[in-house]
Write a structure and sequence with these properties.
It contains 13 helices and 21 strands. The protein is an alpha/beta fold.
Length: 496
């Protein structure tokens, strides 16, 4: 039997730096490059910048395309290489290590002027892939440019500080003053804040904003999809992106592992092409479990970005009814002003209220309630704030727990409450409504993080809760097609 040697691309075998600094596989890099106009690969004057070089994959694959596209312009292979590598390709390493790796990928040598470099035009080690150690701008314990925590990232000499050169106003003049045709890359996603909550500061949007300042013809980056619903300092960025008519292509992976093998990123990932000189509607592609759905659409049609194309018409059917949103009867976070840590007392006294917390049921004095006092003597529905599971691989459950609370029952920050009625039937009908696949499907359209909040009910219509509601009644009321019903049923699993 003939034995075939397996010779994989070394850049497809690299372990990621972390889930925040992910190497781009060669296949994915080429899928992104395929979105750029074909004629750019035969343009000897086109210039390309990867401002966040990790493995050098984008520059390497661009070089391959230019070497093929400029054959007629430069018949001599070496002259073609010299021109492309010195005049057209530029990069900025995110660390000293990745700059060395990127030079190795592009020049076949970790130094541009090394013995094994594919060209002899450079008289310095870095060539066109630069790296200069950069400092954070510390102000009141934070970096004013990227939000890094001084206690976390002010490190001793020799340790990586993650003060990325591209977003810290440390660009050399040849980069700052060059008119790039294409800026492309896979930026670092976030920085640990050093807080006890283990939250992190989003970072990727700063690279996009900086890239736009250089005014390239085309801008393309692969980033987390969490920006769709804003939050964590991303509200302004979300509004900018969704209203920017120059974003002409957007490819979305709700499940990040469909794009990056072995990587878990809540909210998935996406990549886009921003075309400076051409505005219009966006060709949006959603890819999930191998299923590809593409339509041309207005990204800013709704304040919250609707990720699933199939959901658009369903939401339009609902909006045509001009009904109020259920968000009107959903509480704010911490409806009774009680933190998650409170458990209450184990014994009930005459004036105490029943307290529901993540630790179970306890009792608390009425005098300790300062917020939501009007709800204490009402029937209401308790719902868990953290989502059930994830919203990446359907079918989803979304709401982990629903329970009717009686008068004199309250809850901690762990939960939201909905409604507030004088009779139990109304609260029970509201609970049944929240249990429907219809409601939970609409919730999915506005959630990209880990929690449910009042604003996530923006697409869920208000109903008359003197009646009980089922999916069948709701599908009929909103005149959903068989295909739309099947899509909802495939996306959402039963509550119980």
């Amino acid at each position: 039997m003939k034995q075939t040697n397996y010779n994989p691309d070394v850049l497809s075998c690299l372990a990621n730096l972390s889930s925040d600094e992910v190497f781009t596989p060669p296949k994915l890099a080429n899928e992104i490059l395929d979105l750029l106009p074909k004629e750019i690969w035969s343009d000897k004057n086109a210039t390309f910048l990867d401002p966040v070089c990790k493995s050098g994959i984008f520059l390497r694959e661009i070089a391959k395309r230019l070497l093929e596209g400029l054959k007629n312009e430069f018949p001599d292979v070496q002259k073609r290489i010299e021109h492309i590598y010195t005049k057209q390709l530029f990069g900025i390493g995110i660390t000293e290590l990745t700059s060395l790796l990127s030079r190795r990928s592009l020049y076949c040598s970790k130094t541009a002027n090394g013995k094994y470099s594919v060209l002899g035009s450079f008289n310095n080690d870095q060539g066109n892939i630069i790296f200069e150690k950069t400092n954070h701008d510390w102000q009141s314990g934070r970096c004013s440019l990227c939000g890094a925590s001084q206690s976390e990232y002010e490190r001793e000499e020799g340790l990586e500080t993650h003060a990325y050169q591209f977003i810290h106003n440390n660009l050399p003049n040849n980069i700052k003053n060059m008119k790039f045709d294409v800026i492309i890359g896979n930026p670092p996603y976030q920085l640990n804040t050093g807080s006890t909550s283990a939250q992190a500061v989003p970072l990727y949007h700063k690279f996009i904003q900086q890239a736009k300042k250089l005014n390239p013809r085309y801008l393309s980056m692969i980033i987390p999809g969490r920006w769709y619903s804003g939050g964590m300092g991303l509200d302004e960025f979300r509004n900018e992106m969704l209203s920017d008519k120059r974003i002409r292509r957007l490819v979305d992976y709700p499940n990040a592992s469909d794009c990056f093998s072995g990587i878990e990123l809540r909210g998935g990932v996406c990549y886009f092409v921003w075309d400076r000189d051409n505005s219009g509607e966006c060709e949006y592609t959603s890819i999930s479990n191998g299923f590809v759905n593409t339509i041309v659409r207005n990204l800013s049609e709704y304040s919250t970005f609707i990720r699933w194309n199939q959901a658009l018409q369903i939401i339009k059917n609902i909006k045509d009814k001009k009904e109020n949103s259920l968000s009107e009867i959903i509480s704010t976070v911490s409806p009774f002003g009680l933190p998650t840590s409170i458990r209450g007392k184990s014994r009930k006294s005459n004036d105490s209220l029943t307290l529901h917390s993540s630790g179970g049921v306890g009792y608390i004095a009425r005098s300790e309630i300062k917020t939501g006092i009007d709800l204490i003597n009402k029937y209401k529905v308790l719902l868990s704030r953290p989502i059930s599971g994830n919203l990446e691989v359907p079918p989803f459950k979304v709401i982990a727990l629903l329970k009717v609370l009686k008068p004199k029952e309250v809850c901690t920050h762990t939960y939201l409450v909905a409604g507030g009625y004088d009779n139990a039937t109304m609260a029970q009908n509201l609970k049944s409504y929240l249990e429907t696949k219809f409601v939970r499907f609409l919730l999915v359209q506005s959630i990209s993080g880990m929690d449910i909040s009042r604003d996530k009910f923006v697409f869920v219509p208000m109903q008359d809760f003197s009646d009980a509601w089922t999916d069948e009644k709701l599908y009929k009321k909103y005149k959903l097609t068989k295909e739309e019903i099947e899509f909802i049923e495939s996306m959402i699993r039963p509550m119980k």
